[in-house]
Structure formats: structure tokens, C-alpha cells
Amino acid sequence: MTPHLRAAARAGVVSGLRRQLTAARGDDRGAVAVMLLFIGMIAIVAAAGLLGGGAVFAARAHGYDLAQAAARAGAQQIDTGAYRTDGTVRLDAARAAQAAKQFLAAADATGNVQVTAAEITVTATSRQATPMLRMFGIATITVTSTAAATPTLGPPT
Questions:
Q1: Distance from first CA to last CA of the chain, Å, rounded?
Q2: CB of 94 within 8 A of CB of 40?
Q3: Phi, psi for residue 23 in degrees, rounded to 5
Q4: What is the pTM of this model?
Q5: How do residues 2-14 score in pLDDT, each as one tens digit?
Q6: What is the tens place of the pLDDT at every residue in 60-108?
Q7: What residue ranges are annotated as transmembrane (predicted)?
Q8: The dihedral sign for the CA sequence 97, 102, 107, 108
Q9: Which of 7, 42, 68, 156 is the most exposed place for a label (fewest CB within 10 A)?
Q10: pLDDT in the model for residue 5
Q11: CA-CA distances (angstroms) from residue 22 to 11, 29, 80, 97, 128?
């Protein structure tokens, strides 16, 4: 066989192999669309998880704010009789507990209130919605926070 014929035969073999490989590989049209679909789904799930995590942190902050506000509402109920008699600043336990519980009820929360003459401690329990975590089966979370307050007559100096 002459060198030209050998080169032509090799070219024909190489061309035939290319056709076979291309046919075996199949048509790749639409592969990018499928890949983008999966990447988009992963991005949506990741964003929902991040926003849901932010909602959990916000719910915890709200729960703590609720406990603090209820404790402050209770700390405003001083025993006026003791203050007028000898200038002692102490809590009226019954009124302080009632004020804190009323504050919690108005905020649609429950809790425990402990009152001493010098301090009121409120443990507030509330349920917070987590709309972005609903797709993961978590529609609400229960938040429990504790805060304390002491009675004062004015701002600290």
C-alpha cells in the first residue's frame, strides 16, 4: 500500500471512530438547563435555611425582650407604704407578679414569675412563627427566656 493510501485509510478510520464516539455519547442539548435547575434548587434550599436560621435568632431575641419587658413592668410596682414610711424601695410582691403576668398575657405568652422584696424574675414562654422553615417541617418554635429586674426610683446616677 502506498503512503497516500495508508494516510487516507487512517483518516477514514479516525473519522469513523469520531462518528462512533459522537453517536455513543449522545445528544447533550439541554444538559446545561438540567444542571442550572439543580443548582437553582440547591440555592433556594440554602437561602430558606439561612433565612429560617435568622428567624430562629430573631425569635430568641424577641423572647428575651418579652421577658425583660415583663420584668420591668413588675419592677415598677413598689411598696408605696414602705417607701412613704421609711424610704425603703421594695416590691409589692402581689402587684408586681400581677403586672408581669398581665404583660405576658397581653403579648400572648405564658410564664413563671418569682418576686422577692428586691427583685422580680420572669421566665417567659412564647411561640414564634418560622415561615421559611415550614418547608423543613418547622412551622413554629417555642422560645423560653428568663430576665430579672429590680425596683428603682429613677435612672442610675
A1: 109
A2: no
A3: -70, -40
A4: 0.67
A5: 665 455 555 555 5
A6: 898 999 999 999 999 999 998 888 899 889 999 999 999 999 999 999 8
A7: 31-58
A8: positive
A9: 156
A10: 47
A11: 16, 13, 93, 81, 57
Residue 148 near residue 73 (C-beta atoms within 8 A)? no
Handedness of CA 61, 69, 143, 107 (dihedral sign): negative
Grid cell for residue 156: 442610675
Distance CA 107, CA 103 (A): 6
Nine-digit cell string for 56: 430562629
Half-sphere exposure (Cβ direction) of 36: Cα atoms closer than 13 Å: 4
Q: In terms of Cα–Cα distance, which of 68, 67, 63, 93 is closest to 78?
A: 93
DSSP labels for the chain? --HHHHHHHHHHHHHHHHHHHHHHH---TTHHHHHHHHHHHHHHHHHHHHHHHHHHHHHHHHHHHHHHHHHHHHHT-B-HHHHHHH----B-HHHHHHHHHHHHHHTT-EEEEEE-SS-EEEEEEEEEE-GGGGGGT--EEEEEEEEEE---SS---
C-alpha cell at 33: 438547563
